[in-house]
Design brief:
- The complex is a heterodimer of chains A (about 300) and B (about 525).
- With about 300 residues, chain A is of the alpha/beta class.
- In chain A, strand 6, helix 7 and strand 7 form a beta-alpha-beta unit.
- In chain A, helix 1 crosses helix 7 and helix 3 runs parallel beside helix 5.
- Chain A is globular, with a radius of gyration of 18 Å.
- The model of chain A has no long low-confidence stretch (mean pLDDT about 90).
- Chain B folds into 4 domains: about 60 residues, Alpha-Beta Plaits, CATH 3.30.70.20; about 100 residues, Orthogonal Bundle (Fumarate Reductase Iron-sulfur Protein, Chain B, domain 2), CATH 1.10.1060.10; about 160 residues, FAD/NAD(P)-binding domain (3-Layer(bba) Sandwich), CATH 3.50.50.60; about 140 residues, FAD/NAD(P)-binding domain.
- Helices cover about 30% and strands about 15% of the residues of chain B.
- In chain B, the strands form 5 sheets. Chain B has a 5-stranded parallel sheet, with helices on both faces.
- In chain B, about 45% of the residues are buried.
- Classes of the chains: A alpha/beta (about 300), B alpha/beta (about 525).
Amino acid sequence: MFNTQVGDFSREEFMSSGHNACAGCGPALAVRFLMKAMGPRVVVVITASCWSIISGVVPLRSLETVVMHCPFPSAAATGSGVKKGLEALGDLQTQVVVLAGDGGTFDIGLQGLSGAAERNEDILFVCYDNEAYMNTGMQKSSATPYGSRSTTTPDPMLKTNPKKDIMKIMAAHRIPYAATATIAFPEDLISKFKRALETKGLRFLHLFTPCPQGWGSPTDKTVELSRLAVMTRLFPLIEVEDGEKYTINYLPEEHVPIEKYLNPQRRFRSLDQEEVALIQEQVNRDWEKMCKLTAQ
Amino acid sequence: MLYSNENKNFPPPISVETVSTRVNKTGLWRFLTPVRKEKISPCRSHCPLESGIPRWMNKVKEGNWEEAWQIMREYNPFPAIIGYVCYQFCVEKCSRALYDEPIAIGEVEKEIGLWRHKNYEHKNSIPEREKSKKVVIVGSGPAGLSCAFYLNMLGVSVTILEKLPVAGGLLATGIPEYRLPRDILKKELEILKAEGIVIKTDYEVGKDDLPNLQDNFDAVLLAVGAQESKPLRIKGEDLSGVTGGVEFLRDLHLGKLKEVEGRVIVIGGGNAAVDAACAAKRNGAEEVTLLYRRGEEEMPAHPHEIKAAVEAGVNFIFQTVVEEIIGESKVQKVRAGKTALSCRGEEINVLAGTEFYLDCNLIIAAAGQESKLSEVAPSFPGEPLIFAAGDAVSGPSTVAGAIFSGREAALNLFSMLEHGKESNESFQIASPLNGKEEIVSFESLNSTLYSRQKRFDQPQEEAGRCFNCGLCSKCGVCWIFCPDLSVDGLSGDFEFLLDYCKGCGICVTECPTGVLTMEEVVSDEA
């Protein structure tokens, strides 16, 4: 039988076709799942990112709910304010979801997010990570992985620093719930959204969402790449409760070499074998560390 | 949705856009279009019956045995028999073999047949008086029975004539009982009779009877099989103690021959030879030796059969040809010689000075079979309403091949009877493939959606492992992974909403059964 039990998913959609995402967009798919889990009773706060456009330019909207746009650094702050405002109006039910890209989370939005996390504001912060500033033309962010090409780290000056470990940062804030998820595992993703909705306080979701335009991968490989990221153990599907209790949700059955994930992407094209071996080593090391964390 | 919320507090006092992005027809961005096109599975392409395996597997997976049978009978009216006897060329090509373990297709097929045996009810048959056409079938082997089944289904009155006292042809008198339990055949025949097919045994048809049959029936189908062993054309062939392979098996099954004694030599390398060797061993022969004139790799017998024979204790001597049978009135020994290496179809060269002698009490000559077709009907082919099917036409093949031939004959015969009336859907008989259809490759499937699993004993669970290659199983994977919501998830058919499809191709890559392809489709707007 399938690993993906499609029959269990709700057929109801709270997102419309005709949005402006590129063909094969990972973030669009991720938010579609998000809305499926969430339902319409939610305020979505969107910071500057691809989703500023995908959610519709005036007078259009692609999400069947209330959307609020905000400046780049203030995603978490705006979310916190909206939540407090709703509470002041006596609406304790409506959820506030902050939608930010990796730039709005790892770089520009980090101080706002850190503040909200410290105050433990009752919001769900969703970071859809496509590993660069894709909307403005693929400039590198601190989520861009080692060895990746971008317009600010062009070939041969590839990115030399590794990706920031955002999950550790969020865990260090001791927030009640943080999790990683990706679009190739919709069951896992939707169940994590639902779990997040049931939790009070700041919840953080790190979504791995391939971007065919920026990564130079074929548009049809979006889901496959996100699956490979999990299978190669590059992007483990985990949950962290109260910054302490780590759980790995999916243990890959076999070892898939990292080349399988790197090869279809043009941004990694100029890596030589040595560098690929380095990446593989790093992945193995990170995975071991993660296993140790879950064992404790 | 937005404004119909019951809670007065929602939405909060904030301005919202009111026009849906659905006004954007993003389908205009598309270069390539996903197209759902059912393709031929590798198992089907290698099945002598061209059976739509993924289709009935899908029904078994759902636990819907009735529909599984309804689909099965379009291809194969006797799944229980095929489940037992078929060599399962399908399993050799199963895509799942490249992933973990091939599906036990034969086992599932057998279960459908056994379900049918258990749940058979006489219903919906056409009353005798409404059957305006009458057809007679000579021979009750798999081809004849299959043709009878389909013709009966199409509303033709069918009579089968069998020269032996038992019906079933090779199924009754050729295939060993350990491969096909006789109660399975009995049950199939019972069902056919209950459906209104008349089977007359002990009724031999000679060439003089044919005009008579033509007078009494609208059409004649000759399915006499290839039931005569070819003569060896060597000295001593007429001695007592020399018999043919099919004749030997027939005598054994009919009880004319109770026991085999002494040393037996079987000549030939086909399934009939191996079956005869096994049967001789099982029925008391002291020692059974099979002589084949070429090497083991060249043997036409199926590897399963050869393995069974080795296990039964049959000796094999390859590269050996019998040149003379020696004995006074009864067989005593044979003179044999070694042959040079050769492939099938090449000439046999006996090496000089290699002759040797083997003692024996019985010789079974199973080097090929031929049909009596030309004896029964010297005028065939040529007359419009005389048809032939099965081994009689094709030479010795498989049971599945014979059933296929009977199916085709039924289609042709029926169209001919109805004067060129086109075959249509209500026929419920599968048309043969033309060999040009696209076959689904393992690479076009998204096998990663399945976990690796070994075979299950439960047929329903086992059917659940089937990839359903080339058949849309309405799983909805295309719908769930569409970032543009351009697959309609509400209808259950997962239609593409081409107004919005941007042509990314995720659905095609993710499709677990390989029914989707990206194609260049010129739209009307362009």
